[in-house]
Amino acid sequence: MGEIVCANVTKIWGVGTAREVEALQDVSISVRHGEFLVVIGPSGCGKSTLLMLLAGLEMPTGGAITYKGTPINGPDADRSLIFQQPSLFPWRSTIDNVAFGLQLRGIGKKERRRQADQFLRQVGLREFAHKHPHELSGGMQQRAAIARALCLGADVLLMDEPFAALDVQTRFHMQSFLLDIWQGSGKTVVFVTHHIDEAVYLADRVVIFTARPGRLLDSVSIDMARPRNVISPDFERYRALFVERLRSEVTKAFQEQELAEMLDTRIK
Amino acid sequence: MSASRAVPAPGVAPRATAPRLRQFAAAAVWWVLSIGIVVAIWEITAALGLINTIILPPPHKFVAEIQDQSQFLMPQPGVSAIPLHFAVFTAIGASLRRVLVGLVLGSLAALITGSLAFYLRIFRNLTFPTITMLAPIAPAAWIPLAILAFGMGDGAAIFVVFVGIYFTLTLATLNNMNNVDQVYVNTARVLGASRRQIMWLVVFPAILPNLFVVLRMNFFAAWMGVLAAEMVGVRTGLGAVVVMGRQMMNMNLTFLGMAIIGLVGYLLDVGLGLLQKRVLWWRSAARV
Question: What radius of gyration do chain B's Cα atoms show?
Fold first, then answer.
């Protein structure tokens, strides 16, 4: 039995309006406790929608999602969502950003700063505790956002292309950083990306989504020891597999988009 | 060797402040030049007898008028000069008090109305058409109503500032609340924030810098509203001093009043600008 179970989940945005969009269709996934699951798929396939549902920020239109056996009916600090965009509050210093969740729980300033300080140390940002987000690099900001989630003891990290806005070197660095945090922690990670190398490097298991509406196309376990060598034949084999599976879906997504644009211009 | 090492260390602090000081000095030079040229032309044409110095007294004359303190108290009947009391401050103080009280009351009321409209759709639908209609009315246009309703005192002047700020800022509050970056709200929700916590810890801090910009832009209209109110009805303050000068055919006093109005308005704007930079700095930082 999985820790997070999606059963026949469907999500339609804007139900009953002219802009009705089916983002997810009949998706069933089970995520094991402590698993590192990576979701890949063409853009607009509902990957982010899935994370919104898992976080409890949105409710599914059909189907059911359970976490540890109980239905998800709202956000919970146990399942923390980390966004692609910078999400640190610009008016708070790094340490007060990390301590934000503790403040919500009514923990006093001194105590929450003491706790936040430990997590800042874990993510290597201790010297930046009293800097503000605009004084931090993109990678540092994401590390602070991760510390903010860890600070509340989140068991599940939901990550929506968290490293997509970073340059290649920083991205590599952040990937190993994330694995360091995750390994041996018993935390479950659901990580969305469109980057195949990232998926093969990080995942215990990769699920592939189809073009819109997003359906589950395939689920592949990565049987490679960690840390993974990105230039090994095994890595190459997985990469080729995913490229091949994704190519036809990406083409489909493109065609659909072009068709939509064509129709749009006709109507105008 | 020791000499080359010793140089950079003490050099750090002055190096950081030197360009700032130079910038400030350059700005000051341009200010002095700009105003100096106007004053010089004025003084020269007056000295040559090219302009009527009764209507346009040269600056050195009307600035000297500041020593004649009792006339600042003339507008308000029954007030007598207190010995060793610099009466010009009484006039400045009266105008400042009105504008600041009006600003604070108007801002608070606008924040409350805007927040209510943000949370209660019925309230928004009921009030916003009216507020949108009233917002474009210039503060000065409210003066006749203000004087009838509040009489010739602080109340009328404060009311003029209040309406000058309140409607625009209410619209801006709702607009900015609707446009708070959703990622901040979602982040707070994911971390377990209640609606109230989101309001106080996310929405308010996110919109305050923008609202302050709106406030600053509307400040001048409010400042002018107070002065206009003081000219036509409220009988104390800088506006009344200007009108008093005309009524006594003492243009020295009128020009002195105008000069003080310009200076005080400018200093207030500088003050608001500094406040923005020091306390509500994150707007510009967030956009980088």
Answer: 25
Amino acid at B230: E
User: CA-nearest residue of chain A to B195?
Assistant: A104
End-to-end CA distance of chain A: 51
ipTM attached to this prediction: 0.87
- On the CB side of A233, CA atoms within 13 Å amount to 0
Q: Are A53 and A27 in contact (CB under 8 A)?
A: no
B186 touches chain A (CB under 8 A): yes
pTM of the model: 0.80
Gap from A245 CA to chain B (nearest CA, Å): 32
Inform me whether the C-beta atom of residue B189 falls under 8 Å from chain A C-beta atoms.
yes
* Per-residue CA distances from A219 to A216, A238, A243, A260 (Å): 8, 12, 14, 29
| Chain A nearest-CA residue for B197 | A104
Per-residue pLDDT reduced to its tens digit, A177-198: 999 999 988 899 999 998 999 9
Longest dimension (CA), chain A: 62
Tabulate helix, strand, coil % of chain A (nearest 5).
40, 25, 35
Beta strands in chain B (DSSP E): none
The DSSP output letter for A210 is P
**Model confidence pLDDT, tens digit, residues B173-220:** 999 999 999 999 999 999 999 999 999 999 999 999 999 888 888 888
Complete DSSP assignment for A217-240: EEEEE---PSSP-TTSHHHHHHHH
Which pLDDT does position A264 carry in this prediction? Answer: 63
Q: How far is A89 from chain B (nearest CA, A)?
A: 7
Contact residues of A toward B, CB < 8 A: 55, 57, 75-77, 79-81, 83, 85, 87, 89-91, 100-101, 103-105, 132-134, 148-149, 152
